[in-house]
Amino acid sequence: MKKSVIVDNGNTQQIQLVDENKQFTKILSESMKDVWKLEQNGFNYHILSIFGSQSTGKSTLLNKLFNTKFQVMNESSRQQTTKGIWISQAENSNLLILDVEGTDGRERGEEQDFERKSALFTLAISEVLVINIWENMVGLYQGANMGLLKTVFEVNMQLFLQQQGKIKTLLLFVIRDFTGRTPLSNLSEVLTNELNKMWKDIAKPEEYNESTLSDYFDLVFTSLPHKIYLPEQFEQEVIQLKERFYNTEDPDYVFKSKYHRGIPADGFSSYAESIWDKVAYNHDLDIPTQQQLLAEYRCDEIAKAIVNEFQEDINKYKEMLENGEIMEDMGEKFNEVREKALGLYDSSAGRYRKEVYARKRIDFLEKMNTYLHVYYLLQLRNLEKRAYGTFKNNISEAVKDDSLFFVESLENHKSKCIENFKKLAEESKLKDTTWNYNDHLNQLIKEIDEYGKITKDQQLNKIKKNIEKNTLTLLSGIVPTKLNNIRDHLWDELSNDLNETIINSIEEYKTLIKGYDCSDEELENNIKAIRKSSWNMFINLVAEETTDNIILVRLREKFEEVFRYDKSGLPRIWKNNDDIDSFFKKARDEALALIALFTFIDIPEQKIRDITGIKELEKEDLIIIDDERSKKLLNKFIREIELQYIDAKRSVVNSTSKVPAWFIALTMVLGYNEFITVITNPIYLIVAVVSGVSFYALYVTNLLKPVLRVIRVVIQDIWLQINNYIKEAKVNNSKKQNSDDPSTSDSLSYLEDDIPLTKLHKRKNNGKQEMYDSNATLVNFN
């Protein structure tokens, strides 16, 4: 007798219940009593087994769920790990877990005897049978172990269900590497339909012919994501699944009383061994007959040879499809290749047992369809990519002309693109298959819709930017012109021009987007954006036209227009009887009225809201020149016009002064010797002659005044380079020199008051324009 294998891993111990040679252990009773302490639990224990293909992670899943220590597969070698049937106690619980050798392993090859016996054994003794299956195996007959389950169900019906009565077993399908691309409900429906069909087809005792699968089995379906690619999500969902086995309050708790076999714990070892004996010696699970074996062997060999030739025929298309090319007439060509292979198979394998031949033919056809389906998926990928690229190119061409029928054009191109894709996808399908292209079609529609939305937004944004650019061009011609041609109703005119410009821009925008099927919300938001950007343009243009230098230039021009030039626009030549003070006061008042006009945007706030749509408007946004800046401008401007005033006064004094005749005679007498010295000295004489000739030449050619003007400008430029302190000193000195002159003292008295220009307002009183401060007090600049 072979010695039973015992593995002790920390707090858990597992034993090999049935070894790979189908020998049942002799130490199960001892382990129940001394190791797991379950023998006295009566009916308070539960049995769970796992069933599935080799290397699908069954042992790993059990270890995660129940903290067992079953040996797991080495990823690098991918060799068989679990041999036979192993049993272990779940950590700190009354659960006994059976880990069963996987099916479809290369180590056993085509020998399925142990697979059938182990599956039937676990089905008979377990309350819950976990069926571990990959998502991509759902719908496959062999991949999902449906053939094996069918045999097991038949024998289970004959051996055990009649004895056990209507005790149910829970089949818990755990769908591994679940991607979510196909909903779990759909996968569950496929498996349920296959199991029901299988149950209907199995051989049943006569009294059970009308029975259904649900009479003996409950089906539950759950899923787990990929353990390698989604480790965190896998761990989290394993923890959630674990609740079903431990938490009795969980609505999905699996160990219900209707699943219990009614065997007390102290009798479980004997019960399990008796079940295994029935299974091990049941001939319905034995190796097929020699004739069947020969038929299966030859059919497999024939299929293998034809598949190799079949693969050579289709491999020539692989590189083309992988490079993104479209295979023309794929469905027709692949149907021919498949029919050729089926013909070869039928002629060679049709001579063997008909039931084996027919079954193997289905497997052979499915295998060929599986190979060809890979090519079909590549074709769909390429069709989707080409259709999307064609759509993008067509839309790009359609919007080059800024079409007014964008949405209509978009829908037309989308419809053509989808119809062409469906036509080619349908033509590429194989006959008698359930292949579909819905996933690729849905992805194509999604990509088309996303690109259409992006293109629409880009075009709308482009139109809006062009409108804003045109608006800026219009305002750039209006604002500077108005500000350079100042009138009493300046801001009213500017606000009206702004409103008209915005209205025209909005109407133009509405016209250009008619073909884009914009929602009311989109239209309203874009119009708000145009209004707001137009107001910002207006503000910026006003700011550009009201810099310190420009304001000072306008003030000087206004002052000089009144003070230095007469009504005919000719320069004034001051005479002794001219009232310089009156001219100065008038010029000063008009200049000050001008600067007061530029202190803030004098448009009513409500009118601004109506024009721009801006609800929250800060008063600070309307200020152009604040108090501090107005003081600096005023001081600078006053210093400049003061010098012009002093120059005007001095020119009158210089023009009215006359040299006495006696002074001329005295100068001639006293300067006789110097005159003789000049004419007798060659150097002095040459300098005098050159200076005289130059002066005369400039006079004759009318260049004297321009030269003097240039000299004066040069002197003024040099003068301006002198620091402010020297300027102020000279101004103060000039004040002191003229303090005795009553005509000047009155005119300069306005400098005593420091009145912020932003607080000044113009009013007309009896036809005369006057300036008032913020307290409505008349400001007297005299």
Briefly characterize the structure.
By secondary structure, the protein is an alpha/beta fold. The chain is built from 25 helices and 10 strands. The longest helix is centred in the middle third of the chain and has 47 residues, at 354-400.
Describe the structure.
Helix 4 links the parallel strand 6 and strand 7 (169-176). This protein has 25 helices and 10 strands. By secondary structure, it is an alpha/beta fold. The termini are far apart. It has 4 domains: 28-68 and 84-102 and 112-283, Rossmann fold, CATH 3.40.50; 286-435; 460-654, no CATH class; 657-713, no CATH class. Its main location: endoplasmic reticulum.
What key phrases describe this protein's structure?
25 helices; eight-stranded mixed beta sheet; 59% helix; two-stranded antiparallel sheet; Rossmann fold; alpha/beta; 10 strands; 782 residues; 4 domains; single chain
CATH architecture of the largest domain: 3-Layer(aba) Sandwich
Main sheet strand line-up: 1-2-4-5-3-6-7-8
Strand content: 5-15%
Overall average pLDDT? 79
Number of helices: 25
**Total strand segments:** 10
The rounded Rg comes to 53 Å
Helix proportion: 55-70%
**What is the CATH topology assignment of the largest domain?**
Rossmann fold
Derived from helix and strand composition plus strand pairing, the structural class reads alpha/beta
What's the number of structural domains?
A: 4
Main beta sheet strand tally, sense and closure: 8 strands, mixed
CATH class categorisation of the largest domain: Alpha Beta
Judging from the principal axes of the Cα atoms, what is the shape?
Answer: elongated
Could you name the ranges where pLDDT drops below 50 across 5 or more consecutive residues? 741-764, 774-778
CATH superfamily membership of the largest domain, which one? P-loop containing nucleotide triphosphate hydrolases
